[in-house]
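Supplementary Note 3. Input sequence used for the single-chain structure prediction.
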Amino acid sequence: MPGLVLNGTYTALVTPFKKDLTIDFDKVKELIDFQIENGIDGIVICGSTGESATMSTKEKIALIVLAVEHARGRTQIIAGTGSNDTAATIDLSLIAKEAGADALLLVCPYYNKPTQEGLYYHYKQIADAVDIPQILYNVPGRSGVNMQAEVQLKLAKDCPNIIATKEASGNMDQVMEIINKRPKDFYVLSGEDSLTIPLIAMGADGVIGVIPNYAPKQFSEAVSHALKGNIKTAARMHYKLFDLIQMNFIESNPIPVKAALAIMGKIEENYRSPMFPIHQDNRKKLEKALRKAKII
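The predicted structure, written as discrete structure tokens, is reproduced below.
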């Protein structure tokens, strides 16, 4: 599907909650503005980092609508509409399209553990039913199944509106196979902050990341340098953030990133169960890393 370019740094945005654990929509707007002001290329709403697993369908729709309306075309809004139910995914995806989302992020069906053939037909059905740009999201660590390169490439070939993959398998060989064999205008986005610069050096187009939640300018500048071929400069910037990149997964995502934003005064540090506040020892390490990187 021509027209949408996916290139650069995309933030998998957290979802701020109030003390009563309802969504803090005012803070969502502030976070979107913070991202745009710091040069981000797009925002993913209702992704894993956004704690979509504990949101109702009604809440997801409200978030997507708000993000599109508040961004007002200033940046791309990508709606996380994937689930382990093909029919439910299609329903939410149609709503996201109607709301004006620029693209969909479709996580591999989790818990079901489908076969590779089942994965292909899951995505094919969504692509056939919803005429909007779509991004595959391969994250075996959360979904329990790895979508092999062969399947991703077949979907890229067979479905014109599947225009990209967010690859979070951590398997460099697999990602490079996709980059090497992909059709024209199929984008490969890193799903791992730490592998972004190496993958761009190998031909990837950008990242959907966690760290740009609180370091959007620093991380997007590193990605921009890498995309321009300034790998040594990008690497230096990467290593300045490396401790923080690792810290984001010292506990389950999005616990550390929400703690970081709370330390910065951007949000209240509230989580929906079974997520739980960061351990105090880890909070101290995180704060130290934020100071070292001059984020605070």
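The two ends are 42 Å apart (CA to CA). Residues 244 and 289 are 6 Å apart (CA to CA).
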